[in-house]
Amino acid sequence: MTRVLKHPHGSRMRARASACVRALVRGSVAMLALAAAGCAVDDTSDDVLIVHAAASLTDVMDVIAADFEANNPGVDVQINVGGSSALASQIVEGAPGDVFASADLAQMGVVHDAGLAPHPLAFATNTLTIAVAPGNPRGFAGLADLTDPSLDVVVCAAPVPCGEVALAVEKAAGVDIQPVSEELSVTEVLAKVTSGQADPGLVYVTDIARSKGEAEEVPLGGDESVAIAAGTQYPIASLTTATDPIVADAFVGFVLSDSGQSALENAGFGSP
Question: How many domains does the chain have?
């Protein structure tokens, strides 16, 4: 489920870039260094920035957007959240947008291959885990327990990133899970668990954190190959459809800055 966007009417006023923000477009090294220094966009009145972000980023992207707006008066950041595969399809099909933050490299690759995200950069990592009801009333001990056919197990559908990671984890662990439902975003999987519609579900560790106690984590277990398969990398990129590329690049830089990385760490994400 995506949030309703408020689309700007008429032309947006072009942001006049300061010297440091102009340098953001030169490459990832310059972007990291300058974003960490706190570069802000100049004269940004009436700029609306549309960010397409993976569902697992819902809460933390709100925090980052608010911080970016505070540092750049006049910029209105609007977040469109959903499954990364659905977002990638929307972007390729012509949905307006300035920035794309994906939950995996594959869906960013779809947008990149379409020529719409030429310079993606890694900004965070996440790890798949098992979500259960508080107190783990069914006594799950690991991934192998989810093969019990009497359970109502919920996962993400492929090619949603959390679904692809779930398949990779099953293969690495040598187990075959038969879910009763495959959802289009990880937030929908979490909702099934917290509402009692599912016994366990496969979500990210960050989803456990943002459930505020409504879900509990049970580690996957298994060997190192399972741990490796459970990890995913998040890339972000300015889109060639950005109405104001300077502001879009500045937002990407802000996500990569100390401030953005601190917000991601507080939400449970790993460093890129």
Answer: 2
